[in-house]
Design a protein that fits this description.
- Among the domains are: 111 residues, Beta-Lactamase; 101 residues, 2-Layer Sandwich (Beta-Lactamase).
- A hairpin with a 5-residue loop joins strand 6 and strand 7.
- Helix 1 runs antiparallel to helix 6.
- The relative contact order is 0.12.
- By secondary structure, the chain is an alpha+beta fold.
- It is built from 6 helices and 9 strands; from the N terminus they run H-H-E-E-H-E-E-E-H-E-E-H-E-E-H.
């Protein structure tokens, strides 16, 4: 009877030890996962900042220098070249009053000729001689986009107009969709300007009562809130452990944010869990077999006469 009690106690000790070891390994995995997640979000912020903002802005300036928009009759064809080379969805030229004088086409063969966008910050800055990058919803196209603008000078004379390229935010949506994590890109106004969860786009992530520029958001003056608990609840519907990471970064002096929710099960090797269970079972089986043989030998020997 005492032997059985000892065996039971030893089994409990073995199971407890295995649990402690497994828990220690899992905690180590969790800490590493948090660090990897943080680095991944940081790398994503660099990709967005460099590939979709700064590098593209430089491309607009260099294209303007190479194409030399001096021949009025040739402007339309050159704008099409700019569209093709830069991958822009829309390219247009504004005169000093902010009126579009030349434009490539967007959907249904429409263009922006005759439209006046003097109220846009990209025009106000570039007509004064600066290159500028701006994000907004098009008041005409109704699409989210990044606007790159640069001043046009004719033969070294004073600024005669502004060249603008617009890239739709669908490219950034596509980038975010390539990730398994749930991702949200939040602009300086606290609006979710992009996400790989469609119903989270153009929601108010910050709890504020800001009045929004109707021109920047194409007549949108209020946005439906997207509380943090909704984001977390969405990610925990599968009852899987999740980690959240938020990083802020500067674009043209303004603070943007990326919020990322990652399910740990997506990154923890399934084989790790299975291997741990198998090893634990093998240890328990071997121990009990060994104990059985020892007890059998003792029983055969019997008590000494």
């Amino acid at each position: 009877r005492k032997t059985k009690i000892v065996v039971i106690i030893l089994n409990i000790i073995i199971i407890t030890s295995i649990f402690i070891i497994y828990n220690s390994i899992s905690n180590d995995f969790y800490k590493k996962s948090v660090n990897v997640h943080k680095q991944d979000v940081y790398n994503l912020s660099k990709t967005l900042k460099n590939n979709y903002f700064y590098n593209e802005g430089k491309t607009v300036t260099s294209l303007l220098g190479k194409l030399e928009l001096t021949n009025i009759n040739d402007i339309s064809s050159k704008l099409n070249v700019i569209n093709d080379v830069s991958g822009a969805n829309l390219s247009y030229i504004m005169d000093r009053s902010g009126t579009v004088t030349a434009s490539t086409l967007y959907k249904d063969n429409l263009n922006l000729i005759g439209k006046n966008y003097a109220f846009r910050p990209y025009f106000k800055n570039s007509i004064m001689g600066d290159n500028f990058i701006y994000t907004a919803i098009g008041v005409t196209t109704k699409k989210r986009g990044i606007y790159y603008s640069t001043p046009i000078t004719m033969k070294g004379e004073k600024i005669s107009g502004v060249l603008v390229l617009k890239k739709n935010f669908s490219e950034i949506d596509k980038l975010l969709n390539s990730y398994k994590d749930k991702l949200i890109l939040v602009n300086p106004d606290g609006i979710t300007f992009s996400s790989n969860v469609k119903e989270w786009i153009l929601r108010k992530i910050e709890n504020n009562q800001n009045l929004y520029d109707k021109f920047k958001y194409a007549e949108h003056t209020s946005f439906k809130p997207l509380p943090r608990e909704v984001i977390t609840k969405y990610s925990k519907l599968s009852f899987k452990e999740v980690i959240e990471e938020e990083i802020s970064f500067k674009i043209i002096g303004e603070t943007w944010k990326i919020i990322s929710i990652r399910e740990l099960s997506e990154y923890q090797p399934t084989s790790f869990t299975y291997l741990s269970i198998i090893i634990a079972l093998i240890i328990l089986i071997m121990f009990n077999i060994f104990t059985y043989f020892v007890m059998s030998i003792n029983i055969k020997k019997g008590p000494k006469q």
